[in-house]
């Protein structure tokens, strides 16, 4: 990192530490450590990950979802349905049989169910984009169960519902 920073004539006289402790840089500072300084450089900021470059080079869309948010990632919901089916399969210690059971469980989840998971995730993403919180997004997803996106006036509708309920 030091070598790259020196090449760019950005190395300070008193030097820099490699990274701030626990990756917790001071807010607003861009020169507290080598890591922060490099990650603020335009070529580093605009660089796609190797995985994203590989996916886009094959003319596919690469869309990353937040970690561990199952309501935003329908793959997590699909995996949960497959795990439920896998648990119902007979127990085995044979690796080939386990692999076959996993494949059978994944194949057993109907395509329409996977599509419903995708629609539900799209509704949650749309709800969060429109400013709803988690409970409000869940209410909207139930109310507009068959719709891929929520109406533009969802906030007014939610306020009317909450007023009527109280």
From TrEMBL:
InterPro entries named in the record: RNaseH_sf (IPR036397)
Domain of life: Eukaryota
Record-level Gene Ontology MF annotations: nucleic acid binding
Gene3D superfamilies, per database record: Ribonuclease H-like superfamily/Ribonuclease H
Protein name: Uncharacterized protein
Species of provenance: Sphaerobolus stellatus (strain SS14)
